[in-house]
Design a protein that fits this description.
By secondary structure, the chain is α+β, with helices and mostly antiparallel strands. The chain is built from ten helices and twelve strands. It is 29% helix and 23% strand. Helix 4 links the parallel strand 4 and strand 5. The longest helix is centred in the middle third of the chain and has 18 residues.
Length: 351
């Protein structure tokens, strides 16, 4: 099509990509990114690659890099509906950092990718500020990222997030689950609610057609609104768990995400052991009951979909459990003994 059919020249901005707004967004996020920097970070925001010194690894016997990538999923649709954009970045960091923590790794640095229909620097600042806050909670540096404007392929108000985290662990200290045996104890750390999983179901049964109710305070939620409870960010367990690892020997760990306890705790079990989990051994937040009642599904389906109030699990010798629990509580975690290891075939069973 000729340029005159558009009543003048067609530049990048006319096509839907505003590079000037992108530059403004970079300036707005600069202080948030810098707040996450560790001494190992080299350079500043705006380079072609994030630089991170490996000098800190020199005292390790056999340093192993551990990486993880994830997103926030359809929870973002709720954030967009409620115009709340400063918490989903915490979810993004948590989903990646908690995953690499499972092997005992210390998260070192993080990169993000934000795709938007139309770039607005103020909203981008809120999103990246949340990512930076998550990195600060972890203790890792936000060393790079990408803001991509996708006119014509995404609605103007739509955006998606993905992230990538790298950490390190000394191979002799790596946690693999291989030492787990019958008689070991399972400790569960309390979740902050739904975290970032199961939102396609949640939106179907609690949000669609009830949008006007999301901002109403509810007695059954302790005065909070349903929107606030659903958007509560994923808890980040890195500093608490690493503090416990400094004092006790942990045999296995699991980040309880999509698939729930049923399909995450089994990932660290030897094929000769089962994890016997006692339902009712911890407090299940009310929001899970609301979902179950609205969806009309059974307990097994709930435990196979949601974290049910346990966001992270540790398996350790019963003699180590009291010390670990005390340290985790000192770090602010809600800790429950949720079960034990028994002979079996590598699955989670419930009692």
């Amino acid at each position: 099509m000729a340029a005159d059919q558009h009543q003048g020249p067609v530049d990048y901005r006319t096509a839907g990509v505003d590079t000037a707004e992108g530059a403004r967004a970079v300036e707005r996020i600069r202080s948030h990114v810098r707040a996450t920097y560790r001494p190992e970070v080299i350079g500043d925001i705006g380079g072609f690659g994030g630089l991170f010194s490996a000098k800190a690894f020199k005292d390790m016997e056999d340093p192993v890099l551990v990486s993880g990538t994830d997103g926030v999923g359809t929870k973002l649709k709720l954030a967009q509906l409620l115009d709340v954009h400063d918490t989903v970045g915490i979810d993004l960091v948590a989903m990646c950092a908690n995953d690499i923590l499972v092997s005992g790794a210390e998260p070192l640095f993080f990169l993000d990718y934000v795709a938007v229909g139309k770039l607005e620097s103020a909203r981008m600042e809120r999103i990246v500020a949340g990512i930076a806050r998550g990195c600060e909670q972890v203790g890792c540096a936000l060393v790079g990222g990408e803001m991509a404007e996708h006119p014509g392929t995404m609605d103007a108000d739509d955006y998606d997030l993905s992230g990538f985290c790298v950490g390190v662990v000394d191979r002799p200290k790596m946690i693999t689950g291989e030492a787990i045996k019958p008689g070991d104890v399972i400790l569960g750390l309390g979740s902050g609610g739904l975290h970032s999983n199961g939102f396609s179901l949640v939106r179907k049964v609690l949000v669609e057609g009830r949008e006007s109710e999301l901002s109403l305070p509810r007695v059954d939620l302790g005065g909070a609104t349903l929107g606030e409870v659903l958007l509560a960010p994923t808890r980040i367990y890195v500093k608490s768990v690493r503090a416990a690892l400094a004092e006790v020997a942990v045999k296995g760990m699991a980040h309880i995400t999509g698939g729930g306890i049923t399909e995450n705790l089994d990932r660290v079990l030897p094929k000769t052991c089962d994890a016997r989990v006692v339902r009712g051994g911890w407090k299940v937040p009310r929001v899970f009951g609301l979902v179950q009642e609205a969806a009309g599904i059974d307990d097994d389906s709930m435990y196979r979909t949601f974290n049910m109030g346990v966001g992270f699990a540790l398996v350790l010798d019963p003699a180590e459990a009291p010390t670990a629990a005390a340290k985790l509580r000192e770090m602010g975690e809600s800790v429950s003994e949720i079960g034990e290891i028994v002979e079996g075939t590598g699955v989670v069973i419930y009692e």
